[in-house]
Known about the structure:
Elements: H1 3-8, H2 16-30, E1 38-44, H3 52-72, E2 76-82, H4 98-101, H5 122-136, E3 142-145, H6 146-152, H7 156-164, H8 166-173, H9 179-182, E4 188-190, E5 203-207, E6 212-216, E7 223-227, E8 233-235, H10 237-248, E9 252-256, H11 260-272, E10 279-283, E11 286-287, H12 304-310, H13 313-321, E12 328-329, H14 335-349, H15 354-357, H16 361-365, H17 379-389, H18 394-404, H19 414-431, H20 442-457, H21 464-477, H22 483-495, H23 503-510, H24 512-524
Amino acid sequence: MTQKTLESLITNKSSWPFLEANRLLKRYNLSKPKNKFVLFETGYGPSGLPHIGTFGEVVRTTMVRKAFEQISGLPTKLIAFSDDMDGLRKVPDNIPKQEIISKHLGKPLTQIPDPFETHDSFGANMNSRLRTFLDQFEFDYEFKSASEMYKSGAFDEALMNVLKNYNAITKLILPTLGEERRQTYSPFLPICPSSGKVLQVPVLSHDVIKGSITYVDPLSNKSVEIPITGGSCKLQWKADWAMRWHALGVDYEMSGKDLIPSVQLSASICKILGSIPPENFTYELFLDENGEKISKSKGNGLTIDEWLRYGSEESLSLFMFNSPRKAKRLHFDVIPKHVDDYLKHLDKYGEQSLENQISNPVWHIHFGSPPKPEDGISYNIILNLANVCNTDSPEVLWGFISRYAPGISPATAPILDQLVGCAINYYNDFVKPNKKYRQADKTDRLALKDLANILKKLPNSANAEDIQTQVYEIGKKHEYQSLKLWFSALYEILFGQPQGPRMGSFIALYGVNETVELIQQSLSRK
């Protein structure tokens, strides 16, 4: 497949990463990158424990990056940038030793003790957690720390450029601020030499020749002159964002819907500094189970470990791929569906045309080289198998699976083997504590006895489709207002939950005789 062939297949109906890649390629053709490569950036504010919403930006940016490489053939780089020089404004709710951290409010994150006592600073701990996630997904990236970049002098030239354009940048920002904030605004925030805090104080003057600013020390009430280079100051974050784009030559960056005004301001500042701002993609925010925005400081989202306890890495990537411009609930109950949806996409991939393959999520999850699909057993069916068996043992579930699909094993079906473990975890943590069996009424009892009798008479050659047909016929025969009510009765009486699997596939996996026994036990349950 050539680049020209792939590029010719991209239409308005193509997957969004290819549409973004095509947009970036048009920009490249008009204006060559500042670097010898096309630079993608993703930013991280390490003020709280990382959550999946934070990392979705990296996953999605990488998808665009890989699509861009395919259609352009150009070298690229991804920078994961941590704004760890930002002053801590409030103590996160989900960290230990909060009383100790509260004494350091206002200081850069890399100058605050680590409440977990595993790293040199709070910022270093959060950065480590971010990198652990990125490494876990085997992302190709270069990590950069704001503290290191400021203190090493890597930003000095760009900071001097900001100082030269001090008045123009201030004039641009002031109309966007409230009256009180206008009185103290300066693009530069001095780092207090005595307290180590990032100061929000009026700047009396700036000197381009000396490369310094003069401000009023809030403790001594005396004027203090400090250089703007070498880590003695940091920029207000909108100016900081623009300076970073300018200094690094960033070509593409994503951001959340809540940052649209900031993106616009930073783009204007970037132009003042003499650079073209990067292409931007705005994504919607993730919501918790109550429909509220996920926050690092509140810790009301899922962690990486929580998702991977119940679902595969690929299902998480699929969640990030789907509808990035649509607000989505990020809660435990979305995991099973995304696991099964990933398996369905994987099954379809090998039979699709190239045009449809590049719109299939698995192309972007595996960057054009997805694995071969395994035997078609859904995660939902494995969950219900764990439910009926009421077991913590993968071996028990594999006993049923091996009988249903002879020849497969944990060694030959690693994807399925992982899902068996995830299903047991999900069942124990979410299904088992909430199981609530419904007592069968008169209609239910007649229908279930009828189903048991039909199952007993099925030939050994009956497959999942044959069984499903019989289940449908029983539902039609008895006095249910709809088949949906019949299946609800099956799930609530047999499994103790409101939703369940495709019954024909489940019975084929669990066993006809075992299902008959399950029905009899359910009818005798009080």
